[in-house]
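HUMAN: You are asked to prepare a plain-text protein record giving the amino acid sequence and the backbone structure tokens, both parts labelled.

ASSISTANT:
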Amino acid sequence: MTEIGSQIDTEQSSTLARGPFQRFLRTIGPGFITGASDDDPSGIGTYSQAGAQLGFNIGWVMLFTFPLMAAIQEIAARIGRTTGKGISGNLSRYYPASLLYVVVGLLFAANVINIGADLSAMADALKLLVGGPSPLYVVAFAIVCVWAIVFLDYTRYVKVLKWTTLSLFAYVVAMFAANVSWIDAARGLFIPHIEWSGTFFTTLLAILGTTISPYLFFWQASQEVEEEELKPTAKPLRRAPWQASRAFGRIRADTLVGMAFSNLIGAAIIFTTAATLHKAGVTDIASSTDAAKALEPAAGKFAFIIFSAGIIGTGLLAVPVLAGSAAFAVGEALRWPVGLQRKPKAAVAFYATLAAATALGTGIMFTPIDPIKALYWSAVINGMCAVPVMVVMMLMAARTDIMGEFPVQGWLRALGWLSTLAMGMSSVGLIAQWFL
């Protein structure tokens, strides 16, 4: 058997498992974890605010964003798997340094704010459930997240992340406990409703900034590189084109499942708060913990407990992803050794950056900065920052000197540009509202 044939046979046999469920678990990976981490405590706060303020009428945005989100994440994953480099790594090699540093700087700042807000939300949720000091919980959660990502074996850590995604089902349970009007929910999901108001466009941009966020692009592309480096027979597709068909098939399945799961949870949160808080006239929701507290009188103790527990679970998933994507972006930009499969001694600067991002986020709790206001504006900044990043990604994915014989074409490229256009239009709409 030729070397190429042996590699193909090895890849095929490695993807076969004993049954459908085992094959499913082997298929899901970077895309599924990326989609689940998108529903972090800050995202939960955004969806809760959307449902409380606009009711079921905003539900259609979750359906609208699904193909756009799936397309742009698949493109990010293809860049990583094809080139063997993440987004930042390719930026550093093919684009001006000024663009690289601006993009990485904005990403790092937004991620630090997001980490701080998520840790604060997790601590507040635990305080709601058992009492105690929030600052102590913030520090404890930060230590747990950094310890896990630094010291756990990579393959074991990925399994932990996969199982942590189960915490998101708390919001499906909460939805069924909220006595949702399914006719109104279906109408809001399938019939677009647009309002010309600052509240609507700000909420729309916040949702888009939460569902289509730059850190997700960087994380999924880098994780594709990690997965490829861990397999002895796998190589960047530019160097091993015979692996492309199976790799792209896995990426598409993984990404579609991950983004569908992400948007399903987002819709469940919107429906829960629309059926309870909006119906009761409670529209002033600034955070996920505000939503949890308001749910108790509106939907009962059970919904409150489930919602609060979900905040903690999603934070334990999202904080390492936020810190990790920041470390990947900085490390690749400066061409350090990067990768969660590396031992700490082999990638000191990478892990130090990861820990520093978490420490800076933790520090927000001990400053006069309001983490809720910072979170809100980080979502808006993410939405606006995403546009230039997406433009660069789309241009990068079309270049044969970067992608070799696998440039992104056809309907995937069209959806990627449509996603970029949607983000751009919502940003313009928000800016117009500020001046008008």
